[in-house]
Amino acid sequence: MSITDIRVPEGIADEDAEIVLANWLVDEGEHVDEGDVVCELMVTKVTFEVGAPASGKLVQRAKAEDIVAVGALLGVISVA
Predict the structure, then answer these.
(1) Taking the model in full, what pTM does it have?
(2) By three-state DSSP, how is residue 15 classified?
(3) Which 3 state secondary structure label does DSSP give 79?
(4) How many angstroms separate the CA atoms of 23 and 62, rounded?
């Protein structure tokens, strides 16, 4: 089984900016294709979309409204 991490992208915020996982657009366990938007991050009232880095089953590791940092693990894509 192969696992691909979904992380908060580099460069979306200053080091001291608060980043919030605004919401998941795909439910836990659903299949996604590479490039599908899976969640939205909010930084200073600006929303950033995060796409799936691979195709497979989504496993969420962070919850909506969690405060996260650049590089933090949001979820993984599991490919059987």
Answers:
(1) 0.90
(2) coil
(3) strand
(4) 10
